[in-house]
Write a structure and sequence with these properties.
DNA-binding, 42% helix, CRP/FNR family transcriptional regulator (chains A, B), Jelly Rolls, transcription regulation (chains A, B), three-stranded antiparallel β-sheet, homodimer, 206 residues, 2 domains, Arc Repressor Mutant, subunit A, alpha+beta, DNA-binding (chains A, B), 10 strands, transcription (chains A, B), WH_DNA-bd_sf (chains A, B)
Chain lengths: 206, 206
DNA sequence: CGGGTGCTTGAGTTTGCTCAACGGGCGTGG
DNA sequence: CCACGCCCGTTGAGCAAACTCAAGCACCCG
């Protein structure tokens, strides 16, 4: 990539905050490995995860920050960051880059709106099923309806709850229900086997 | 505006669907007057409003549609639409335009994420209070905390419920509660007087 | 005046939350 | 090596918030 010269590779431990790091928040970064969560909170401590960024997503907010979301590494993360100045200079000389930023922003907007439907209108079981499908789909974008798929959840129960607008207890109960119904298997609480993606989808409410 | 030559002014009756209209969905439009709602639905009929666009917002999805959201006029609407071809041609010769599209997409993304927090973590009363503040803020962006403000809601109770992820009965009950508490006055069900925006804000959860 | 639509209110039910106890995995220290 | 504590997740019991269903009211229009 043309940015190679000015970019720096960074490793973030799980749980690391990405705000505070001026170079990252002012500039832009490319996630090479791992999962970053975007969080919004209320004054009384309630929190909602408003976005998940997987490799190889871009990360950051060009032009005017103040986005009021904070970012945190959900897993160990490796990213390739470059300063704000570099990015803006590159945009000036290459409309192509701005175009790809626009495409990513529109994709994130679609994802956010999909999730608004989940948060506003789905019940707890449907939300958990939707979440599992989201992760399964990230692990294998070409997933077939009848194909068994296994993966490790990149998030704790608390993080899942904060993503789904539920409590940890409710998340746990719905996972148990899916397990008892034979739709999934749960091992070591992080490792999930989806026996039947098509059936899981029927639980997700569409 | 430079687009004046190829643009056409359109009037939409309240309730009119904007999908189906190829010229609008493929292209882009400028809302001159009124409110447009963006809707997502589940197969069983549940619906969630995932965005509200007020004048003078842009409307539409450049490059690759298939956004799976449908748009509908919440009030009578006047918009100025231009065909996809025109827009794309203009973008080619003016990076400035793409830049403003990016800015609008980022703004909509922020709004969507704000609302995810509301949908995922606020209770019914907080949601209704947040909605009233949202509308009040649209009516008067320079609203002061102690200033009384009156306005007509641009949406029915059903639409408000679909926006807040609630039922119409719950919306009605929370409005009653705010009225009984003296925070607002309700006249003819559409006309709202906010006696004390600062106090309303304390009900909105932040 | 009758019917329709949209809103409000009430009663009962359901869903998910709260609070609390318990259990397994893992790291630390004896 | 085992004992202990800690963290995370699970499970249970009771409760509270929002939903469902149903009735009633105001307004509009024919």
């Amino acid at each position: 990539m043309a940015l190679a010269k000015t970019s720096t590779k960074k490793r973030l431990e799980i749980g690391a905050e990405l705000v505070g790091d001026a170079e990252i928040i002012d500039g832009y970064a490319n996630i090479l490995f791992g999962v970053v969560k975007l969080i919004k909170g209320l004054p009384d401590g309630r929190e909602q995860i408003v976005g998940l960024q997987f490799a190889p997503d871009f990360l950051g907010r060009p032009f005017q920050t103040e986005s009021a979301v904070s970012a945190q590494a959900a897993t160990n993360v490796v990213l390739c960051s470059f300063p704000k100045r570099t990015l803006e200079a590159l945009i000036k000389q290459s409309p192509q880059l701005e175009h790809s930023l626009l495409k990513q922003a529109l994709r994130e907007l679609d994802e956010a709106r999909d999730w608004m439907l989940t948060l506003g209108r789905k019940n707890a079981l449907e939300r958990v099923a939707s979440y599992l499908l989201l992760i399964a789909n990230y692990i294998d974008p070409a997933l077939r309806p009848q194909e068994v798929i296994a993966f490790d959840l990149p998030m704790s129960r608390l993080e899942i709850a904060d993503f789904l607008g539920l409590t940890i207890e409710t998340v746990s109960r719905q996972l148990t229900k899916l397990r008892v119904d034979g739709v999934i298997q749960v091992r070591q609480s992080r490792h999930i086997v989806v026996n039947n993606p098509a059936r899981l989808k029927t639980f997700s409410g569409g």
